[in-house]
Amino acid sequence: MTIFCSHCHRPLQAEMSCLPRRGKQAPSGSKPFRSTKSASKARRDQINAELQALRSLLPISAREKERLSYLHTMALVCLRLRGAQLFPPDSAPPAGPALGAELLSLLPGFLLVLSANGKLVYISENVAQVLGLSMPPLYQVELLAQGDTVFDILDGRAHEDAREKLLLAQEEPGREVTFVSEMRTSKAFRLQHGGNRAVAVRGHFTALRWPASSTTAAFLALCTPVTQLPADGDPGSQDDLFQSTHILDMTFTDVTESVTYHLGYRREELVGQSWYSLLHPEDADLAATQHRAAALGVGAGTAVLRLLRRDRTWAWLHVSARRDGGGRAITCTSRCLREEEAAYLRARQHRHTPRTTAPPAPPPPPPAAAPPPVAGRELSLLAAQLRALADSLSPPAAAPAWAWPLPEAEAEAFPPWPVS
Questions:
Q1: What are phi and psi of 335, to 5 degrees?
Q2: Separation between Cα atoms, residue 282 and residue 306, nearest integer Å
Q3: In tens digits, what is the pLDDT along the chain, a chain of 420 residues?
Q4: Over the range 231-241, which residues count as b (16 or more CB within 10 Å of their CB) and which as e?
Q5: In what order do the strands lie in the sheet with 241-246?
Q6: What is the dihedral sign for C-alpha 142, 146, 147, 149?
Q7: What is the pTM of this model?
Q8: DSSP strand E in 44-154: where?
């Protein structure tokens, strides 16, 4: 019987094969890798050396470099690489002066630059004041420690809205979009103010180089806090505020000149008018609650309301009212809001307002005592007397006398009324 090789299908003799025997196999060129302690240490040393080389390239002081962990080092390096990709060093500088510390201090918020997929590219230094973070460059470390996308620093409830707005802005470059969300802050900020800070993000996608593509487009945004804090400065110096003074029935007695910019009215037009005449009808109950709190002196009443502009449109305002002037006046500080900001503040007030249960209904009054039943005999007697009186008055004197027929039972007990 002929035996064929299973590999080359050639005829073989018994107990023969075209493959070399196991004992006579040619030595392999590379041996299988076996991990040892020395090999693991060598790999760790190599990674540490590369991270230290990357850390040395960061444009920060040596003291700040020593405070960076390896994770923070990688986060800062990735941030720099994304920035270099969108803003190459050999590209022409942007027109106008560079954003220095003095110019950033004049902004009502901080600047944010995102890539097309939502990665953080640039955050201005004044974010430290808005979110209570460390001074530069460690503020970037605190933000990047939470993640390298904008969604990692936003509240989870706003992720869906932020994604929709970013996609809309990416589909229509140049179109400004706005979304509001709480941003993660430092632990000291949360302890002092009771939570994170709500920030309105307004921006648009723009092509930094041509031809435009996802790698050359960036989302440029200005992030402004929705609610002001006492540490933000004097409210009277803010451009988006105006103040008004009222007597206790909310009639205007004075208002700052900036009301012309926000509502369109001149100061002389408002003095003597009622604040309620400008109020949206749907906000009357909310405004009355705020007015009552301020008039009773239980604190500063705050509310998000709509007031009528001179051009017959509605302006969203965050109004804070307090009683002062010896208790004879009410001062209102009104801050203009965008519609997205107003919707967020109203929703937050609704969530944080304690739901008071309605007081138990008073017990129903005891049923009134039913009048004592009147016997049918007594009613018949009264009816008979009334009929008799009517008969005595109505017929003429010459008319023949006749008696009103009574029931048989009544006739026996009560004889007919005598007729004269």
A1: -115, 130
A2: 9
A3: 566 666 666 766 555 555 555 555 555 555 555 667 788 888 888 988 988 888 888 877 788 788 788 888 888 888 888 888 877 766 554 443 455 666 777 788 889 999 888 888 888 888 888 888 776 666 777 777 777 888 988 888 889 989 999 999 988 888 999 999 888 888 888 888 888 888 999 999 988 776 666 677 889 999 998 876 555 544 444 677 899 999 989 999 999 999 999 999 999 999 999 999 999 999 999 998 888 888 887 766 788 999 999 999 999 999 999 888 677 899 999 999 888 889 888 888 776 655 444 444 455 555 554 444 444 555 566 566 656 655 655 545 444 444 445 455 444 544 555 544
A4: eeeeeeebebb
A5: 252-255, 241-246, 329-337, 314-324, 301-308
A6: negative
A7: 0.61
A8: 110-114, 120-123
Q: What is the spatial distance between Cα 333 and Cα 318, in angstroms, rounded to a whole number? A: 8
